[in-house]
Amino acid sequence: MKYTRYIILITLVTFIQVFSQEKLNKEKSQVKIFNEGYFVSKITQKINLEPDTLNSITYFKNNKIRAESPYYVGSGQTILIVDVKTKEILTLTDHPYYGKTFSLAKRNSREDQKEKYEVVLGNKKRKILGYNCQQYIIKVNESTQFEIYSTKEFSTTYLNNNKTLRLELKVGFILYRKVTSEGQTQSISEVVKIVSEPVSDKKFSLTPPKEYMKIGE
Fold it and tell me: Where are the alpha helices (DSSP H) in the chain?
């Protein structure tokens, strides 16, 4: 479960990058906007000291996202549904030993303000899925940092309307991320597919399915 939640958090970070509104207005005519759809990420991480590569999928529509982790033996699968406007977060966990459980929480503004990162502009560039990407180093603390490649050639309605969630700003949409802790690579994720198409509102429902039990009951 620990690794599954870690992957979900990494996947969600992809969606909490916000362009500055001033720059968005200047570049609006050049930026492709996706209103709804999904993206697929290839994720490689160490599990039991061995690298494992699986795909995750994240759906987005208006102010909501749904991130589905891969199914890991021993930890099951986690689905995270977030409403940015109301700051509600529904977590659905299907664990092979503990069964199907859920938790529903609400994030407060103070938690948003506590998030602090140091963003360092890198000197490398690369193309991912045909988009020009810029390297950044995100320093979380003394032992943990992200190396990311992000683009400003496209955005989503979700990002443009998001004025609260942020990863120290202005890096654009992240297509590649390598997480390093204590000098060791913990995970690498790269978006390998982006699809713009209608997505059912049912995927973003914050009402837990009947077969899921509330954690603690």
Answer: 2-13, 21-27, 109-114, 157-160
**Both tokens assigned to 206:** 């914050």
Check residue 161 and give its pLDDT.
55
The CA dihedral of 146, 164, 32, 204, to the nearest 10 degrees, is: 100
Show the domain range for 84. Answer: 2-214
Question: Residue 53 gets which letter from DSSP?
Answer: E
Residues 6 or more apart whose CB falls under 8 angstroms from that of 115 comprise: 166, 167
We report the CATH number of the domain holding residue 73 as 2.50.20.10
Q: Are 63 and 85 in contact (CB under 8 A)?
A: yes
Give me the amino acid identity at 167: L
Taking the C-alpha atoms of residue 214 and residue 39, their distance in angstroms, rounded to an integer, is: 29
Domain count, the chain: 1
Q: Which residues are 178's β-sheet partners?
A: 147, 188
Which CB contacts under 8 angstroms, 24+ apart, belong to 77-84? 77/4, 78/1, 78/4, 78/5, 78/8, 80/8, 80/12, 81/203, 81/204, 81/205, 81/206, 82/12, 83/204, 83/206, 84/158, 84/161, 84/162, 84/164, 84/165
pTM of the shown model: 0.77
Contact between 180 and 147 under an 8 Å Cβ cutoff? The reply is: yes
Q: pLDDT tens digits for 8-60?
A: 555 555 444 433 333 444 444 467 777 899 999 998 876 555 557 788 999 99
Q: Which two tokens stand for residue 201?
A: 């509102």
pLDDT at 93 over 80: yes
